[in-house]
Amino acid sequence: MKTTKSTSNKSVSKSTSRSKARRTNGSSSRESKSNQLEELFEEELKDIYWAEKALTKAIPKMIKKASSANLVDALESHLDETEQQVSRIEKIFSIMGKDAKAKKCEAMAGLIKEAEEIISDTEEGPMRDAGIIAAAQKVEHYEIATYGTLCTFAKTLGWEEVKAILGTTLEEEKNADLGLTEIAEECINIEAAEA
Ligand code: FE
Ligand code: ZN
Ligand code: FE
Ligand code: FE
Questions:
Q1: What domains are there in the chain, each with its CATH number?
Q2: Among candidates 73, 68, 61, 76, which has minimal Cα distance to 186?
Q3: Which comes out higher in pLDDT, residue 11 or 82?
Q4: What is the pTM of this model?
Q5: Fewer CB within 10 A of the end CB, N or C, for the chain?
Q6: What residues does the ion ligand 4 have nearby, CB within 5 Å?
Q7: How far apart are CA 147 and CA 165, in angstroms?
């Protein structure tokens, strides 16, 4: 009797502790996944912070080399937006309670290098403008991908304010891309072909 009871108690207590352990593992793994997502978010934010700051220096060079007034206007207004985007990223770092740190984005460094190559390889005028648009649209697409991902991460983490800030920038990047497509379709590509 005694033995049976003790065995049964042991078995109950074993099963209880096992299910407790399982529950603990479950919540700690969820917690560590959320921490990992937070870390990944921060890394991506550092990446796009570097990229946006690099663009505040690269866009003025594109403006200087562009001929079409429409293209110059579009790049100038996107330069203003880009400066605001840098500030928005700094705001997100502060919401997270982190220092704003940039980490070199090799992809953006490459896209900017390609833009410089296109500019130096083309003759001033419609051809160079077409090249600038091509390079700038690659930049916008890269940014759209990054901000889209960051929005999804913020949503998953339940960071509503951060998601809204990122959403504002994402819309600006999409509009910049659409604006460049319009300029290319309306004038530059035809002028470039006729030249
Ligand atoms: Fe941007
Ligand atoms: Zn990047
Ligand atoms: Fe990168
Ligand atoms: Fe942009």
A1: 33-194 (1.20.1260.10)
A2: 68
A3: 82
A4: 0.82
A5: N
A6: 143, 173, 176
A7: 10
